[in-house]
Amino acid sequence: MKVKQLLPIFTVLVSSFASYAQNCPPVPEVQSILNRTLKTPFTAVSVEPVESFSACKVKTAEGETFFLSLDKKFLIEGFLTKVPPLKISEEDYLKLRKNVLFSTGKGEEIIVVTNPLCNACRQNREKLKKLVEKVKLSFVPAAFNREQEKVAVDAVCRKKDAQNFFEIQPPLLTCDRGKLKVWTVSDTLKKYGITGTPVFIFPDRSVTVGILEFSQKISDFIKLTTFQP
User: What is 90-226's CATH topology?
Assistant: First the structure.
């Protein structure tokens, strides 16, 4: 990798992505990005932020080093490579729809994979409430650690809805139906390197992870669906 080739790219990264916090994606998500971006297979072993510019340093088992922009749109190895958008298979899309706990709103459906403990979701509940005036949000519980699993299973067992999904009501209930649904959804997302919530799946099966990425895409989606002939 030649430093001279990368200098203009680093300049672009600093100016374009300076607003992003130094928060690199986990290794499984980076592995998913490498898989769909590069023709040659590489195995990601570590991801760490680079303080001098807004990117993450990715080391692979094969000895190669890449840089991933913090918005996860560009992968760098001597030249800038655009990361293809993440899409789930039709089979997995139908699997997620089958495990919807509740829906609210009308219009085009967006699947929201989340957890009652999701801080970003809790902090943006009012924004999500406003969205249901324009789109249909279908909520699917998922979990990526033991504590998340307990409350997600409880939500399914209690058949929670938009009014009480983010409320924790001890003692937490457990049921086989809840475990099966939560495990199925979580395992499905892990195939794509997704290990956190919230996750938003649009009708074309494209995926955004996190509130920031979703906020950037939803405005264009609403304009497109609103002005369709």
Answer: Glutaredoxin (3.40.30)
